[in-house]
Write a structure and sequence with these properties.
- With 497 residues, this protein is of the alpha+beta class.
- It has 4 domains: 1-66 and 418-497, conserved putative lor/sdh protein from methanococcus maripaludis s2 fold (Beta Barrel); 70-80 and 335-416, Elongation Factor Tu (Ef-tu), domain 3, CATH 2.40.30; 84-115 and 298-330, RNA polymerase II/Efflux pump adaptor protein, barrel-sandwich hybrid domain (OB fold (Dihydrolipoamide Acetyltransferase, E2P)), CATH 2.40.50.100; 122-278, Orthogonal Bundle (Helix Hairpins), CATH 1.10.287.
- Helix content is 40%, strand content 25%.
- It contains 8 helices and 25 strands.
- The chain has helices at 2-20, 49-55, 117-154, 157-198, 203-280, 284-288, 292-295, 480-485; strands spanning 44-46, 59-61, 63-65, 70-78, 84-89, 93-97, 104-105, 110-115, 299-302, 307-312, 319-320, 324-330, 336-342, 354-358, 371-376, 381-382, 387-394, 406-412, 420-424, 429-431, 434-440, 447-451, 455-458, 462-465, 474-476.
- A 6-stranded antiparallel beta barrel has the order 4-13-17-15-14-18. Strands 1-22-21-20 form a 4-stranded antiparallel beta sheet.
- The relative contact order is 0.19.
Length: 497
């Protein structure tokens, strides 16, 4: 405050010097009356850089605005549900926190590590299920080998049947020859017996003929036994072939059943693997790749979206139960603005209107860029307070926004009229009966011009100005009261009030 008082005093001295011309003495009037001519009065005030810095003078440009069609409502930024992420432990165990509160994280950033005895039991269950799949697959491989051997064996049956057919044919031909021999010896015996009856035959010849006939009959009997044996072999071979064919069909059914069983067990294993992966915050492919689930001793929970760590609910080394929240993050690029408007203004508003959120006046944020968004209505209003919430949703929120930061929403509810020149209300200061603004001299940036313009309506932050300025001109924002206190720039007034 003392510094500002000294600055104001220095400004007064500068103004006095500008009016007296420094060391130049006052000019006497002609006529010899001894009176001096009053210094020339101007509405310009010198503001050297030192004074600007000491008084904290700032400037803002005149711009065109629809002041009378603008609704201005206060509010604050908030983080919607979709901007927040919460990371839990799905298993009981001991944790190690890997991030700090308010640390910025990206997708894939490790958040905390968990060592859980429950995970060992899950690993054992997965190992048993995997071993069962391997055993069933091995049994199926053996059955497949048996089937292959049977198919190869069935390919040999035509040759075996052909060999027996040839034996049977040779036996039949042999029997035919023996029967011919039998008929021959039967006729010979009959002939010799007739000769013996006539007394001309020989007994030895008859005996030999009868011996040959007997041998032939014996050979026929033996060959018929051989034929019967061959037929039996053919029947047995055919039965064996049919049995093998039936065995192949049975093996096909067993192979199909084993394949279905393997698929069912593999599906159950994959489901258990997927559940385990979800429990430890990994993808199924990550957990299955390289049999990671076999070798994983502890697992790390990673961020799945960008954001800032809002809170950490546990310390490293602590034992936590399953489903315990450890870390919460918020994505500051998904903020929205919530404001409160009177129910009386509801008729002026509708969802989808463009809205601008501007930083609060004063302080380091007042010249920060505004954010443009779209107006939305929540479901309910506050009947007790007679107000309703308004939401402004952004594609990209401003960089200065944080949850809880207050600001104002500007909503132009009608854009048919022509925009008028406007300046911030803070640029206008009451000086007696006049409303005064200080405009930067376009010819000398180290001077300002005191003006009393014609003003119009205001929306609480901006006010219409009809005279004294043009668009793009700079007017004093901070420092107007200090300039007013100097009393400089006022026009001379003759007579008495």
């Amino acid at each position: 405050m003392t510094k500002q008082l000294w600055s104001i005093a220095a400004l007064l001295l500068l103004f006095t010097a500008s009016c007296t011309g420094g060391e130049t003495p006052p000019v006497e009037k002609s006529g010899g009356g001894g009176e001096t001519e009053a210094p020339a009065v101007t509405n310009r005030i010198d503001i050297p850089p030192a004074v600007v810095d000491n008084l904290g003078i700032t400037f803002v440009k005149v711009e065109r605005r629809l002041v009378q069609k603008t609704l201005r409502v206060p509010g604050q930024f908030e983080s919607p549900n979709e901007s927040r992420r919460e990371y839990f432990t799905m298993l009981p165990g001991r944790i190690e926190v890997l991030v700090n509160q308010y640390q910025t994280v990206e997708p894939g950033t490790p958040l905390f590590r968990l060592e859980s005895p429950e995970w060992r039991r899950i690993q054992e269950t997965l190992a048993n299920a995997d071993a069962e799949i391997a055993r069933t697959a091995s049994d199926r491989t053996v059955m497949q080998a048996e089937r292959t051997a049977m198919i190869e064996g069935l390919k040999l049956y035509p040759a075996r049947f052909d060999a027996l057919d040839k034996l049977e044919q040779a036996s039949a031909e042999h029997v035919k020859r023996l029967e011919d021999s039998r008929d021959h010896w039967q006729a010979r015996v009959t002939e010799l017996e007739d000769l013996m009856k006539q007394g001309v035959g020989k007994a030895t010849e008859l005996a030999d003929a009868r011996g040959e006939l007997k041998s032939t009959l014996s050979a026929i009997a033996e060959e018929r036994e051989t034929q019967a044996g061959i037929e039996e072999q053919i029947a047995n071979l055919d039965a064996e072939k049919r049995e093998r064919q039936l065995s192949v069909a049975v093996l096909d059914a067993r192979l199909e059943s084993a394949g279905a069983l393997i698929s069912m067990k593999r599906a159950a294993f994959n489901q258990a693997l997927s559940s385990s992966a979800g429990a430890i915050g990994m993808s199924t492919s990550e957990l299955a790749g390289g049999d990671t689930w076999r070798t994983l001793d502890s697992f790390t929970i990673k961020a799945n979206s960008p954001g800032v760590v809002k809170h950490v609910h546990a310390t490293s080394g602590a034992w936590v139960e399953a489903n315990t929240e450890i870390i919460g993050t918020v994505d500051l690029t998904k903020l929205r603005f919530r404001a409160k408007a009177l129910q009386a203004d509801l008729g002026l508003l509708k969802p989808g209107l463009p809205a601008r959120v501007v930083p609060p006046e004063g302080g380091s944020l007042q010249f920060s860029a505004a954010a443009t968004g779209t107006l939305e209505f929540p479901v309910e209003a506050d009947a007790a307070e007679r107000v309703l919430d308004l939401l402004v949703v952004f594609e990209t929120p401003p960089g200065w926004a944080r949850p809880g930061v207050t600001a104002e929403a500007e909503i132009i509810y009608e854009s048919k009229d022509e925009p008028q020149l406007a300046i911030p209300v803070r640029c206008v200061v009451q000086d007696g009966l006049e409303k005064v603004v200080f405009v930067r001299d376009p010819d000398d940036p180290n001077k300002v011009i005191r003006k009393t313009p014609q003003l119009g309506a205001n929306d609480g932050r901006w006010i219409e100005i009809f005279t004294g300025v043009m668009v793009g001109r700079e007017v004093v924002l901070d420092g107007v009261y200090e300039l007013k206190l100097t009393g400089a720039g006022k026009a001379a007034v003759d007579g008495h009030f």
